[in-house]
């Protein structure tokens, strides 16, 4: 099993990252840390605890509250137009947490201890929120960069995420990012943290970036939502197979509505975050096939250097906002030290595996 630490900011799609990491038979989920992002830290932390309770894993997996604001910036406004005020709007089925998160112990100390207790080159870090905790972790525990096997993160946008007309009436074909026209949320929420990670050659060489360009292809369409609601062989009779499935699909429906309202993407919400967990299994027997732009299957030979705009020197001509958090990908020679950026994956395999994880959670 791949030992894995998940850093997240739940958030509708983070819920599915937690579920995938907690139930995938190829993953040993060591712990969860939370970060500000889709809602303030207190809220994302209670949300994570509620989700673990809903899937019956509260006694098995510890949760540590991490950073409440970016390394070098004041607290930000959460994206309430996407995730609502609670970060998980859209369902009344979330349970009260049955176990308290760890509020006062250091999240990064706990992460470091858990990761360093694993044999070298085995443990994986997955980040599905702003990169603050991850940047602090690698800054304060420099020995970790050489020790971990990989860092898989959902973040960044390079263009392409909003241009596919099959998504619906996309509001602005020149749009690249989701928080601003140029920047993806997890990066713009702490651009200095992201810049620190991408500019460290040792870490970058182990990093897989799952950008909006890819996650906007992973759409929880009505067909997918039916699969998750009724199960593989369940009857499509309007009645969810279990309360857990009902809750998950209510969350997806809310996310679908906000994505349609805000971006005009009408076929279903992109399920960003669990893709970063799935990518952590590349190279293991549980691999879901991810593809480079040259379509060479999971060989993943393309390498990139990623830059993050942190200075706020440029303003967008349409919205007048600064382009802080904008990311650029610079191709490197294959085999160089640089990040991997998959361009597509085996979508139907991914949905089947996610549904398997729900089935296992149902049985718990
Ligand atoms: C990312 O931002 C958040 O809203 C989602 O949870 C995801 O991690 C997508 O840009
Ligand atoms: Ca997230």
UniProtKB/TrEMBL annotation:
Give any single GO term for biological process. purine nucleoside catabolic process
An example molecular function term from Gene Ontology annotations: purine nucleosidase activity
Q: Which Gene3D superfamilies match?
A: Ribonucleoside hydrolase-like
Residue intervals of the Inosine/uridine-preferring nucleoside hydrolase domain: 4-351
The lineage's top-level taxon is Eukaryota
InterPro entries cross-referenced by the UniProt entry? Inosine/uridine_hydrolase_dom, IUNH, Ribo_hydro-like
- Cellular component, GO, one term: cytosol
Keyword Cell wall biogenesis/degradation listed? The answer is no
Q: What keywords would UniProt list here?
A: Glycosidase, Hydrolase
Q: Which family does it belong to?
A: Belongs to the IUNH family.
Q: Which PANTHER family match?
A: INOSINE-URIDINE PREFERRING NUCLEOSIDE HYDROLASE, URIDINE NUCLEOSIDASE
Q: What is this protein called?
A: Uridine nucleosidase
Species of provenance: Talaromyces proteolyticus
